[in-house]
Specification:
single chain; 497 residues; alpha/beta
Length: 497
């Protein structure tokens, strides 16, 4: 009996010990950084996650605003002459943040400059990142592949639009991780990262399928002609990138010709032809499945029966006549000519209705509404028109040449910067032919294509004919270009004055 009691007591002790360990683990899990729930106050969340991670928090500093223009006073009053601070304060690591306009406790961007960022700091920034975050910047922070994976994980959970990772050459071959399938980045800056031709290959491949990036800066890298060829391949099927900065690289005439060729027309490869046929078949099948089910009588099941007397659009044949021809002829006689489809314009009826209802509004001095409407109309006219490009494999303006399918090139790219490269006269000739093709081609009517091209500090002859003609064409294509007055018009103006 004594032995049985001892065994039972030993079992109870082991069970209690195991339960105690489990409780300790649960308490530890509740105090872990991953288990913390964000409150919406970024500073409080950041400090609490640092505390749970058992690390000293890096100073959060409000980002300095742009100085006010001369002659204006700020809302805070007159500026002070000077402020005293510790002489080493500006040398200490800090994270500059910008507050969100709607929620002052949250932030919309943070900037890290000039100090080594460890993975532990990045994990804290990842866990504390609010949903209002739209801009992140790491300038010369010694980021490596592990750090880039953490940043990519953070971007996958947020709708960040602007990313700048300038001066981080240790992760030069892994920037394609940022351009995932569900990427929301619209502006990406990768300047001074020593990106080589082998490093640019996966990034160029990600460009071909990306649907969000509109601005890409690859300034001051080590991209040569092979890298330019890879970028050109990535831009074949890309119709979202608007601005590309390749200044400060080692691109010659070969790479310039590759970039010029994608601006004209594209001959589809065998793989692209197969993908085109697949997309066409999928679109046809989706159109079939999207049609509403019909009853045995041929009428749509989820729609009421249409009456031919009401002038239904479905009763019209190819010639525009109704199913009951006599009724439509009588109706045509009753309708007055002089307007589209025999109907009076809505603008005319609207003017009469306004006069009947009381054009007394104008007499009462209702001027503010008119001016507000005019201002709204002017603002609406000033808004730029956004051109949406379809899938290049489904282009309607296609043609056949020597048994191959030819589609329009990349007309979405509007700004190209090729400053400080090694471009000679042959490269200028390639660019001239590409821009001349875009101006005179009928493939994309109403869409100009490339609008700005910069070529400073290259090796071509600035007195060459093709370069001067290229400058003239690009000057006319510039959206801010104002055509000078003709001499006769100027003389008329001076005579009138």
């Amino acid at each position: 009996m004594a032995k049985k009691k001892e065994k039972a007591a030993a079992k109870e002790e082991t069970v209690q010990a195991i339960e105690g360990e489990l409780e300790d683990e649960e308490v530890a899990d509740d105090n872990s950084p991953e288990a913390y729930t964000l409150t919406g106050d970024y500073r409080a969340d950041y400090n609490e996650i640092c505390k749970r991670s058992e690390m000293e928090p890096v100073l959060l500093r409000q980002r300095a605003q742009n100085p006010a223009s001369l002659g204006t006073e700020t809302a805070e009053g007159a500026p002070t002459t000077f402020t005293t601070k510790d002489k080493y304060e500006y040398l200490r690591p800090c994270i500059e943040v910008e507050q969100d306009e709607e929620n002052k406790d949250s932030i919309k961007s943070f900037y890290v400059k000039g100090w080594k960022v460890s993975p532990s700091i990045l994990n804290v920034l990842n866990l504390a990142a609010p949903q209002t975050l739209t801009t992140i910047s790491f300038w010369r922070c010694g980021l490596d592949r592990e750090a880039l994976h953490i940043i990519a994980n953070m971007l996958s959970k947020l709708a960040v639009r602007n990313v700048s990772l300038d001066g981080n050459p240790e992760c030069s071959g892994h920037f394609h991780l940022l351009l995932a399938e569900e990427c929301t980045i619209s502006s990406l800056s990768l300047r001074s990262n020593k990106i080589s031709c082998s490093d640019i290959t996966p990034l160029a491949a990600a460009l071909s399928t990306n649907k969000s990036l509109t601005n890409l800066s690859l300034h001051n890298n080590c991209i040569e002609d092979e890298g330019a060829l890879q970028i050109a391949r990535g831009l074949r099927m890309n119709r979202t990138l608007l601005t590309l900065n390749l200044s400060g690289n080692k691109i010659t005439d070969v790479g310039t010709k590759a970039l010029s060729d994608i601006l004209t027309s594209l001959t589809l490869t065998h793989e692209e032809v197969v993908a085109r046929r697949k997309l066409i078949s999928e679109n046809k099948s989706s159109l079939v499945t999207d049609e509403p089910p019909t009853t045995p009588g041929g009428r749509a099941k989820d729609r009421p029966g249409s009456n031919s007397r009401t002038g239904s659009h479905t009763a019209l044949d190819k010639k525009g006549k109704g199913a009951s021809g006599k009724g439509n002829k009588k109706q045509d006689k009753m309708e007055k000519p002089g307007t589209k489809d025999g109907r009076k314009s809505d603008m005319g009826n609207k003017g009469k209705d306004d006069k009947r209802k009381g054009g007394g509004d104008a007499k009462k001095g209702n001027i503010k509404k008119g001016t507000a409407g005019k201002k709204y109309q002017e603002e609406k006219e000033q808004e730029p028109e956004v051109v949406e490009f379809s899938n290049p494999l489904l282009e309607a303006n296609m043609s056949e040449k020597e048994g191959k399918i030819v589609v329009p090139g990349n007309y979405a790219l509007t700004c190209l910067n090729l400053n400080n490269n090694s471009i000679n006269d042959n490269g200028i000739t390639s660019l001239y032919k590409a821009i001349h093709f875009q101006e005179n081609s009928s493939m994309k009517r109403g869409i100009k294509g490339l609008l700005r091209l910069t070529l400073r500090n290259n090796k071509f002859d600035v007195e060459s004919r093709h370069y001067n003609e290229l400058v003239d064409m690009m000057t006319r294509r510039d959206p801010f270009y104002e055509q000078p007055l003709i001499e006769e018009d100027q003389s008329n103006i001076t005579a009138q004055t």
